[in-house]
Amino acid sequence: MSATRVQQRDAIPLAPSGPGWLEPVRRAAGALFARTGFPTQRDEEWRFTPVGPIATVAWQRSPTTPGAADRTALAAFRFGQPEWFTLVFVDGVFSEELTTIGPLPRGARVGSLRAALEEGGDLLRDHLTRHAPTDASGFTALNTASFTDGGLVYVPAGADLDRPVHLIFVTTSAAADAALHLRNLLVVERGARANVIESYVTLAPGTRYLANLVTEVSVAAGSWLEHTRIQRESERAYHIALTHVDQHRDSHYRSFSMALGGALARHNLHARLNDENVETLLYGLYLTRGEQTADSHTAIYHDHPNCRSWEVYKGILTDRSRAVFNGKVFVKPEAQKTDAKQTNRNLLLSDTAKVDTKPQLEIFADDVKCTHGATVGRLDDVALFYARSRGIGAEAARRLLIYAFAAEVIDEVALEPVRLELDRLVLERLGTVG
Amino acid sequence: MTMLDIQDLRATAGDAEILKGISLTINAGEVHAVMGPNGSGKSTLAQVLAGHPSYTVTGGSVTFMGNDLLDMEPEERARAGLFLAFQYPVEIPGVTNAYFLRAAYNEIRKARGEEEVDPMDFLDVLEAKLKIVEWGPEIMSRAVNAGFSGGEKKRNEILQLALLEPRLAVLDETDSGLDIDALRIVAGGVNKLRSTGRSFIVVTHYQRMLNYIVPDHVHVLAGGRIVKSGDKALAHELEARGYEWVEALHGVPA
């Protein structure tokens, strides 16, 4: 057995005790991972993603005693909204102390997945591991076998969480060389509404760790979910995530996914449109610098007629950084009247940054409206000249245009405190680009 | 007072020489129309004055209020009081008109040694300026020129002119693509901004706009040179006889 394989098997932490139905799922996932291991760049789905180094590290189990994080340190990540339902996980461990959950509508649940697993009940059996396919990749299999905790958000039929739920996953230096496997479950029942934010942040910017995440999302008939994801991991971290969304009739799902951190960050976002008249909106923004790689893989499955999907991902790259975008749209023969639009635009600020972008539309229905477009370009000289001709200095004009490029997607974030914070993050990053 | 003094100005775009020796002097308060057929170099002249990166100046001099204009960066020219109303104003999705105009306004104020204004005070400044182009405040929350009609884009240029209060404004085919109502508003805006201390260069293909903005001098460009100068009567003569007449007169191939 190769050293790598041994290390991979060692990477599987002990699963927490859970209900009986989960045990075989976890065992099967563990067996699958033991067979396949991590993907490599020889796998078509990971061709442009330098995942190789992940398999060479002897990852430790996540620390049972998390590092120090207090309210003061976390205040920077909370959008100035102390009253929002905020769940905090430090180095993968749920922190009761840092968590704020106010009064919930009857039947709603917002809390730690681990606690819910210990309690048991039908909710988890119906949804947990039922949405994200275990074989989506070696990472997903490993997550299914190993997840220790995560956020659970359950909104019962007809309910409206009157404030956003914010899941904060923060790392400290105690996470050095650890692999964190976390699973979130978001269930929005018939006619319900929710607003959920996932933040992946760090208090130890130079720390190396592996964050292996799966978020399962169920958006029931007539329900509405606004889902924001902000990835600001350590720039030495590996962040591999799958968000799998199952949508039902007349539902609305909107995602905004922002990637700023990680040495390598990969986000797979899969939306399955399981019935008619579904709306799916996916927005993304990635900013890379240094040697970072940001990879966004999205897949939208149009399995039924009369659905609309709209996707806009934008990237701003500098230094020697890289970005990968792959956007799949599958339209089944019966999915007539599908309206799908996909756009990926990239702005290169250095000669050494590189983008691999691949729109991939597979359309088997004939009465559809499907378009896609991908661009990779530099700042427009004429636009720069326009701003400068109004008295704005060359450097300020440059920053203005880069900001404008990002703002076009940030403007899609409906929650104002989040939008303002994302604006600030972009401006802060622009202060450092060359 | 001499506002602008152009002497034997030559400029190229790529390998092609577009301006082949232009000389023109403009005094404070004067309005000069620069007319000419397509490809005569009239828009190039406007853009070269503002420092457009697509053109290289290969000879001659331009003195703006006593300073060497060609030695200045585009933003320095703007801060010194030069304004170009673009023929094709640039769309900047993602930045509101209010943000962009305030950024420009504050840069120009800083250059004049004046205090910057905050967003609230800026709204007060804008109110009067918007009246000049017969606009309400709604336009300020839209992204700069993004999705604007041709007429709205040109009005936005004149709004910026009104706001930045330049000493010399160069209007590059501001009339192109305008219907009669938009033309009346745009030209009316320009007329309200005429003053003894401010000069204009009005670049246009057609005499039409000069019915509204009456020039003191008219110059005809052909083949990268000024081939004829006169007063407003020259514009009417061009309208009646066409550009072939001047081109033939000066041996410029059509």
Number of strands of chain A: 19
The CATH class label of chain B is Alpha Beta
Biggest interface, CB < 8 A = A-B, 26 and 29 residues
CATH superfamily of chain B: P-loop containing nucleotide triphosphate hydrolases
For the biggest sheet of chain B, the summary is: 6 strands, mixed
* Alpha-beta content class of chain B: alpha/beta
Q: What is the mean pLDDT of chain A? A: 93
- Based on Cα principal axes, name the global outline of chain A: globular
**Total helical elements of chain B:** 8
Task: List low-pLDDT spans of chain A.
Answer: 1-14
Q: Radius of gyration of chain A from the CA trace? A: 21 Å
The number of domains of chain A is 2
Describe this structure in words.
The complex is a heterodimer of chains A (434) and B (254). In chain A, the strands form 2 sheets. In chain A, strands 2-1-5-7-9-11-13-15-17-19 form a 10-stranded mixed beta sheet, with helices on one face. A 9-stranded mixed beta sheet of chain A has the order 3-4-6-8-10-12-14-16-18. Helix content of chain A is 21%, strand content 37%. Chain A is built from 9 helices and 19 strands. The longest helix of chain A is centred in the last third of the chain and has 17 residues. Chain A folds into 2 domains: 273 residues, no CATH class; 55 residues, no CATH class. The N terminus of chain A is likely disordered. Chain A is an alpha/beta fold and 434 residues long. The radius of gyration of chain A is 21 Å and the shape is globular. In chain A, β1 and β2 form a beta hairpin. Chain B has one domain: 3-Layer(aba) Sandwich (Rossmann fold), CATH 3.40.50. Chain B contains 8 helices and 12 strands. In chain B, the strands form 3 sheets. A 6-stranded mixed beta sheet of chain B has the order 6-9-10-3-11-12, sandwiched between helices. Chain B starts with a strand and ends in a 5-residue tail after the last helix. At the A-B interface, α7 and α8 of A face α2, β7 and α3 of B.
